[in-house]
Specification:
This protein has helices at residues 2-42, 62-75, 80-88, 97-100, 106-114, 119-127, 134-152, 192-204, 212-222, and strands at 169-170, 182-183. It has 9 helices and 2 strands, in the order αααααααββαα. It has a two-stranded antiparallel ribbon. By secondary structure, it is mainly alpha-helical. The two termini are 15 Å apart.
Length: 225
């Protein structure tokens, strides 16, 4: 009986992990596209070569950004876009943002957003997802990175408390009116429920088809408590 119950737990965790992974892929694609496109249009296609764009952080800095890109582009040098760029151009020595973005991990985008020097860039990127508070959006990116690593390494999800919590979001009121958009994640922001609500909020802002909520409901129905 105990073995059967444990087996059901494992099956549920695996099904939930697959569902979250599909959702995380959508979130990652949307976020990296928005950051890369915004900075390419506002700065240059090689925005990551502009030292003035970033502030120094103990965990992430201009030097580390460059090293990360160099390492990942070098590792994937046989990919067609990278190979084509290197065979066609000698300067700048790294490919433009739309090629580079295919090489680096999501953690790169979360950390790079955090160290952007100009608050206007951070606000513009966050607003693409309906968020007017960059510090809230930054916490969401950090949480998505953590959850992505947890899922990728087959970490247990059932009953797990996340180490990185997304912040609640209360939109800014205008002209005496209540905020039009907000997201209350519940009393326990380190729960998987809070992270799922946050990701659902982000994907809805992309206007892509999303069945995440209904898929979760079906999964929970198939595995009663």
């Amino acid at each position: 009986s105990n073995f059967k119950y444990l087996s059901r737990q494992i099956q549920f965790d695996e099904a939930l992990r697959q569902l979250l992974w599909r959702m995380l892929e959508r979130v990652e694609l949307a976020i990296r596209s928005v950051i890369a496109n915004h900075l390419s249009l506002q700065v240059s296609p090689h925005w990551f070569l502009d030292r003035s764009l970033f502030k120094h952080d103990d965990d992430w800095s201009f030097g580390r950004i460059l090293r990360k890109i160099e390492d990942e582009v070098g590792r994937l040098k046989e990919r067609h876009p990278v190979k084509h760029y290197r065979n066609t151009y000698s300067e700048p020595y790294l490919p433009p943002s739309w090629v580079m973005s295919e090489c680096v991990t999501f953690g790169f985008w979360s950390r790079t957003y955090k160290v952007l020097q100009d608050p206007a860039h951070k606000r513009a990127i966050a607003r693409k997802f309906g968020v007017n508070q960059p510090e809230v959006f930054e916490s969401w990116l950090h949480c998505v990175t953590y959850l992505r690593n947890l899922v990728a390494h087959h970490g247990q999800l059932l009953g797990t408390q996340l180490r990185i919590a997304p912040q609640n979001y209360k939109g800014t009121a205008k002209h005496g009116k209540p905020p039009s958009v907000s997201l209350h994640l519940g009393a326990d922001t380190k729960s998987l429920h809070a992270a799922a609500k946050m990701m659902n909020f982000l994907v809805k802002r992309t206007h892509l088809p999303c069945t995440f909520k209904s898929d979760l409901t079906l999964l929970f129905a198939a595995y009663p408590p």
